[in-house]
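[agent] plan:
  1. take the single chain provided in the ticket
  2. run structure prediction with default settings
  3. attach structure tokens to the ticket
  4. add a short note for the reviewer (M.T.)
[agent] executing step 1
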Amino acid sequence: MNTNDPAVAPAAPLPGRRGLLLGAASAVLLLAGCAAPDTLAAQARAGDNKNYIAGDGSVSEYAPDGRGAPVEMIGTLFDGEEIKSAGWKGNVTVLNVWYAACAPCRKEAPDLEALHQEFKSEGVPFYGINVRDTAATAAAFERTFGTTYPSFNDADGRVLLALADHVPPRAVPTTLVLDRQGRVAARVLGLAEKSTLKALISSALKEA
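[agent] step 2 finished; step 3 output follows
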């Protein structure tokens, strides 16, 4: 073959080991760049390999005329008391789905307790919905983070089944704000940021 013939292009050299490594690194960075930093951080926080499905952090607030029917549920707290959602009518209520090995649940627990204390005088009950822990594990979590509001023992999924229209399967944590009629006024999928949740509760309280 005449390599001096301008019509014949020389073959491209095969990449060396350095070139292959640089190419692979670039591909990894490109793929990482496709995911939002907040998503990557949420995945890193999950960490426990406990069938954790991270919420996307989305906040949804629903207009009164688009909230649908009131939540109807019956559940048993860890202390054995049975609670019916019908008893919440007339009050704004906060429900938080959690379990002890969930990293975002641990992070948001102090903020939830602070909001519980802040809104207690306005008659806003807070309830946790624990989806997998024993009573001892749940109690240890509450002691560690100073959580004083009660939680449902929902290892059998009874409460979550009643909330299936609002809480995606195994999306932990999820926080719901119910209006005075017991309808879902707002929902936070994933970590509940304190100022955001405070605003959602305050908004529901201002409604007639």
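[agent] step 4 note for reviewer: The CA atoms of residues 59 and 188 lie 5 Å apart.
[agent] ticket updated
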